[in-house]
């Protein structure tokens, strides 16, 4: 546990050690919050595939995960 995430981050940069709150933890935390919001908006139970990071058999819920990027931007 760290009371100073900035210092923990810089110490990790210097030592190449994994920080306490790394990008994976941040991604998973944000994902859980977003999934809860989508469930509240739709007002129903949802099934989530964590490996594919998509809802199972629910096109509407999957559309709410994000929005289409405008041209010329894309993710390969």
Number of domains: 1
Quaternary state, please?
single chain
Overall SS class: mainly alpha
Give the end-to-end Cα distance, rounded to a whole number of Å: 36 Å
Strand order of the largest sheet: 1-2
Share in β-strands: 5-15%
Question: Can you walk through the features of this model?
Answer:
The chain is mostly helical and 76 residues long. It has one domain. 47% of the residues lie in helices and 5% in strands. The chain has three helices and two strands, in the order H-H-E-E-H. The chain has helices spanning 5-15, 23-42, 59-63, and strands spanning 48-49, 54-55. The chain has a two-stranded antiparallel ribbon. The N and C termini lie far apart (36 Å). The mean pLDDT is 93.
Keywords, please?
single chain; 76 residues; mainly alpha; two-stranded antiparallel sheet; 3 helices; 2 strands; elongated
